[in-house]
């Protein structure tokens, strides 16, 4: 009887060990897949912004697999992500094509972000805790140091964290998801085109105004500061990329009257 119990126990131990091993293998595979598709998406995005993949160009999965040395799954996942960012259009039975990055696209993205940023800042002025405000200040200081050191990677990371924290404070996860949808596109464009003269110092001043308004619990001031900060960034990146600025929707008809 004892031998049978020991045999069953050894069988259970072996089964548990096998399940743990299988789980580890699957987790490693998923992690590798996740890393692969993100790397593929980053590469395709960079090539679109650089003009290597031109507007209206077909992005064929088999050719991308050969170019990038990966299987079809991460390529397909990457194209889905880039469609969500607005860089790629995927049509049934036609596959993926590159979307033109023009002034209208950039303006539309920033106009949506400006509305969301105003909402986030206004909500933060209402409900942010003292600890959250101190965290905003700490991130802002790290951003300032990154700019002083001309560390573009950390500058981008801290700037992203600053705006993401405002969204997190609001508690509106859907709004934050929309706000972050085009983050990689805007980040890639900034890394390529940089800032105009004095824009980085103005960014710091504008962040300080947002923090000041939130600390004072001044909702209208916080909303205006965040909205104008976003729209000024829009004007700057369009100027830096030498993209023909798109007219603001609805104003063409007004001017024609």
List the helices and strands and how they pair.
Elements: H1 2-50, E1 58-59, H2 61-68, H3 72-84, E2 88-91, E3 95-98, H4 103-127, H5 130-148, H6 152-170, H7 173-180, H8 183-193, H9 199-215, H10 219-240, H11 251-256
Antiparallel strand pairs: 1-3, 2-3
Helix pairs in contact: 1-3, 1-8, 4-6, 4-7, 4-9, 4-10, 5-6, 5-9, 6-7, 6-8, 9-10
Overview of this protein structure:
The chain is mainly alpha-helical and 257 residues long. The protein has 11 helices and 3 strands, in the order αβααββαααααααα. A hairpin with a 3-residue loop joins strand 2 and strand 3.
Biggest sheet features: 3 strands, antiparallel
* Poorly predicted parts: 22-33, 248-257
**Shape, please?**
elongated
Helix content: over 70%
Mean pLDDT figure: 84
N-C termini distance: 97 Å
In short:
The protein is mostly helical. It is 77% helix and 4% strand.
Question: Which tags fit this structure?
Answer:
mainly alpha; three-stranded antiparallel β-sheet; disordered C terminus; 11 helices; elongated; 257 residues; single chain
């Amino acid at each position: 009887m004892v031998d049978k119990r020991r045999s069953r126990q050894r069988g259970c131990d072996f089964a548990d060990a096998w399940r743990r091993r299988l789980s580890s293998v699957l987790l490693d595979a998923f992690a590798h897949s996740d890393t692969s598709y993100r790397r593929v998406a980053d590469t395709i995005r960079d090539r679109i912004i650089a003009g290597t993949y031109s507007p209206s160009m077909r992005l064929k999965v088999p050719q991308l697999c050969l170019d990038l040395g990966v299987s079809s799954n991460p390529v397909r996942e990457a194209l889905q992500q880039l469609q969500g960012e607005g860089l790629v259009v995927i049509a049934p039975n036609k596959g993926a094509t590159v979307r033109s990055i023009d002034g209208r696209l950039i303006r539309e993205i920033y106009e949506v972000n400006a509305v969301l940023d105003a909402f986030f800042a206004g909500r933060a002025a209402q409900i942010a805790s003292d600890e959250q405000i101190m965290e905003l200040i700490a991130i802002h200081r790290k951003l300032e140091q990154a700019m002083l050191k001309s560390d573009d990677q950390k500058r981008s990371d801290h700037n992203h964290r600053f705006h993401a924290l405002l969204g997190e404070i609001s508690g509106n996860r859907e709004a934050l998801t929309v706000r972050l949808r085009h983050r990689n596109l805007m980040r890639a464009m900034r890394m390529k085109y940089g800032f105009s003269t004095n824009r980085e110092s103005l960014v710091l001043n504008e962040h300080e105004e947002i923090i000041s308004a939130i600390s004072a619990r001044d909702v209208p001031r916080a909303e205006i500061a965040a909205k104008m900060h976003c729209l000024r960034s829009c004007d700057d990146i369009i100027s830096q990329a030498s993209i023909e600025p798109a007219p603001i929707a609805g104003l063409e008809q007004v001017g024609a009257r």
